[in-house]
């Protein structure tokens, strides 16, 4: 979903695979309405590199039936809305066939455990000291991540024990006192070099290393 500055709630839809490309790149949803089809109630929807506003611009309209839902109306073709037909077809239809959509933030599903733990531990550790697992488990960012991504309570100490022990190249975990800290970068590099099985991997690590060496 790509919001446009042209007007209120005007947007375009493009394929998920196009997200890594520039704003002007990728495959966009195009609806095949033509001037001669003004009275035609429906039209095909395809993916295309074309970005003609006549066939790509949509307006997000609040659904009159679904709380929080929206409908996608063709901006320059009022009365035509995107609809979904099972099993895999999108169409541009009249208002009677409009489909209500709910926008769901899926970003949290693609965040790794490391991306959450590293800033949380780094923020709370003072002067390189260890952080108690009890303090880590109480961290708001950790609690929010588990709630939104896993739909469960934060791991207990036994679960974190297994995780940190399995990622020892990054974490300096003190099992006896149930506490953890990030290894210094030079230690991380040392651990990775010890785990490397191929000479090419060792060379790559050394060449990409910065202050760790």
Instruction: Describe the sheet with the most strands.
Output: 4 strands, antiparallel
Strands across the major sheet, in which order?
1-2-5-6
Note the run of SSEs as H and E.
Answer: EEEEHEEEEHEHHHEEHH
Structural class: alpha+beta
Task: Give the percentage of residues in beta strands.
Answer: 15-25%
The DSSP helix count reads: 7
Q: What characteristic shape results from the CA principal axes? A: elongated
Mean pLDDT, to the nearest integer, reads 82
Radius of gyration: 25 Å
Unreliable stretches (pLDDT < 50, length at least 5) are none
Number of strands: 11
The percent of residues in helical segments reads 25-40%
- The separation of the N and C termini measures 44 Å
Domains, number: 2
Account of the 3D structure:
- With 213 residues, the protein is an alpha+beta fold.
- The protein folds into two domains: 2-94, no CATH class; 113-182.
- The protein is 30% helix and 22% strand.
- The protein is built from seven helices and eleven strands.
- It has helices spanning 53-56, 113-124, 133-138, 140-150, 157-166, 185-195, 199-208; strands at 2-3, 10-12, 28-31, 43-48, 58-62, 70-74, 80-85, 89-94, 131-132, 171-174, 179-182.
- The protein is elongated and about 70 Å long.
